Amino acid sequence: MLLEINDLVVKYGNIEALHGISFHVNEGEIVTLIGANGAGKTTTLHAITRVPPPEGPKIHGGDIRFRGRSLLGVEAHAVVRDCHIALAPEGRHIFGNLTVEENLKLATFSRKDAAAVQKDYQRVYDLFPRLTERRTQRSESLSGGEQQMLAVGRALMTGCNFILLDEPSMGLAPLLMYDMFRTLRKLNEQGMTILLIEQNARLALKFAHRAYVLDTGEIVMAGRAEAMAENPEVQKAYLG
Ligand code: ATP
C-alpha cells in the first residue's frame, strides 16, 4: 500500500468534517473519491497534504501512512519534498500574475537535479501542448481549461510520483474533460499513482481503477470503479 488512511477524524473548529474514514491507494492505481457537495472530499486531500489551519483542517484522530510511515508528524512542505506527494488544486489556485512557465518553475524550487527538471518540463509540454503555445502568457488570461492543465502541470513539476487531484474536470467543456482524463490515464500508464476527487462521478468511475463514495464525512461504499458504475444505488445517487 502506498497510502493508507486509518480512522481519520478531522475538524474545522468544533465541526467534525470527517468522522473516522479509512481507505487506501496502491502503487500504480487511479483511485477516486466521489461524493456530493460538502461530503468531505477536499478536506480529505488537505488532511493528506497537511494544509495547516485556519484554512486547513485539524486532524483529531486516526492516521495517514505513506509507504508505511505516518505523515502526522511531518511538516506540510516536507510531505511534498520527502514523500513525493503533490497536490494539484483546482485551476483557479494558480498564480494569475505569473506566466505559465513561471508557475511551472515555482514548483521546482526544492529540486536539485536540473536534468530531471528539464525532462519534466518536456513531459508537461508534451502532455499539454496548449501550455507550450502559452508559456510566456500571464496565467490569469488563460481559459478555465488551460488553468486546469497548468494546475496539473505544476504538480508534475514537483517531480512527485503520486499526485492528488482536486476536481480536474472543473470548469472544462465536456470534450476537454475527456482530454484531461485521457491525459491522466497516460500519466498513470507512465507510472504515476493518482488519487482524485471528482464531482463528475460518471467520468471519474470511467477512468479510475477503484472508487470510494464519501457521504457527509463517512465512506459509505467502496469497490472497483467499473462495478460501482453499474451499481443501481450509485447510479441513482451520483450518476442520475
Ligand atoms: P465540494 O464538492 O463542495 O467541494 P467537498 O466534498 O470537497 O465538497 P469539503 O470542502 O471537504 O467537501 O467540506 C466538508 C465539510 O467541511 C463541509 O461541511 C464544509 O462546510 C466544511 N468545511 C470545509 N472547509 C472548511 C473550513 N475552512 N472551515 C470550516 N468548515 C469547513
From TrEMBL:
This protein's UniProt keywords: Amino-acid transport, ATP-binding, Nucleotide-binding, Transport
TM stretches of this protein: none
GO molecular function, one term: ATP hydrolysis activity
Highest taxon in the source lineage: Bacteria
Keyword Cell membrane: no
Domain named ABC transporter: residues: 3-239
Chain segments annotated as coiled-coil in the UniProt record: none
Pfam families registered for this protein in UniProt: ABC_tran (PF00005)
Biological process (GO), any one: L-amino acid transport
Keyword Transmembrane helix (UniProt): no
UniProt xrefs under InterPro entries: AAA+_ATPase, ABC_transporter-like_ATP-bd, ABC_transporter-like_CS, BCAA_Transport_ATP-bd_LivF, P-loop_NTPase
Family (UniProt): Belongs to the ABC transporter superfamily.
Name assigned to this protein: ABC transporter related protein
Organism (species): Desulfococcus multivorans DSM 2059
